[in-house]
Specification:
Oligomer: single chain
Number of helices: 6
Strand content: 15-25%
Order of helices and strands: HHHEEEEHEHH
Largest sheet: 5 strands, mixed
């Protein structure tokens, strides 16, 4: 195979999916490695990026699956597009300056639902300055589709509905909170650590569509371990 057009969209997506699986940070270097050594018929980096961008809605749909669940764990992680001190010179569309447990971030936040065994079942990319609880309400639009599960979160998601740990100065703690929920919350933190190692927070992005592409591929790569043989 020598003609660029013979590389199907499925093949291009499969090669792109291998990047987070192998924890390669630079897509350009990964593409050059595969094209030079294994698949010379692949299109150029520019053409591959264009075709992958067109596939983003499909990849986002394939990366997660709606399931009937009893519990989900919700949390967020920053998706910076540049260092905060460079925010005034950054031209990334829709990026905002926000704050989290790790300090200030310029860009976006990834909000996600995880099952109790670490599978991501829903995610959303929201502005960095949007409160976690507001993003949680946005994700709750699909709450019934997932079987109306109980949602376990940290103190940022306290609204009287979600299952969250009590505040230190709380007079009457939420009687629904159980000690084992604290262990459940750590599951999604482990998931985010895995996504970070796969390069999900690595910058060098210029458009929102490329950010969505990176996140969808990383989520899909993470969830592959839950596919039944």
């Amino acid at each position: 195979m020598h003609a660029n057009e013979k590389a199907s969209d499925a093949e291009i997506a499969a090669v792109a999916l291998l990047q987070p699986l192998h924890k390669q940070m630079y897509f350009s270097r990964w593409w050059a490695l595969i094209k030079t050594n294994f698949c010379p018929h692949l299109p150029s980096l520019t053409q591959a990026t264009i075709r992958l961008s067109r596939l983003v809605p499909t990849l986002e749909t394939m990366s997660v699956k709606v399931e009937d669940l009893d519990f989900v764990v919700i949390d967020s992680q920053p998706l910076p597009v540049c260092r905060s001190k460079r925010a005034s010179r950054c031209t990334f569309p829709e990026a905002t300056c926000g704050y989290g447990t790790q300090g200030s971030v310029y860009g976006f936040k990834l909000h996600a639902w995880s099952t109790l065994n670490g599978k991501l079942v829903q995610y959303a990319i929201r502005p960095a300055n949007e409160h976690d609880l507001t993003a949680g309400y946005f994700m709750n639009k699909k709450w019934v589709e997932y079987g109306a599960p109980k949602i376990i979160g940290d103190k940022a998601y306290q609204d009287g509905v979600n299952l969250t740990p009590p505040k230190k100065n709380e007079i009457i703690p939420d009687p629904r909170w159980k000690r084992e929920y604290s262990s459940a919350r750590k599951i999604i933190e482990t998931v985010f650590s895995s996504l970070t190692r796969a390069g999900i927070r690595f910058s060098q992005l210029k458009t929102h569509i490329t950010l969505r592409l990176r996140v969808s591929l990383a989520v899909m790569a993470h969830n592959m371990r839950f596919i039944n043989p």
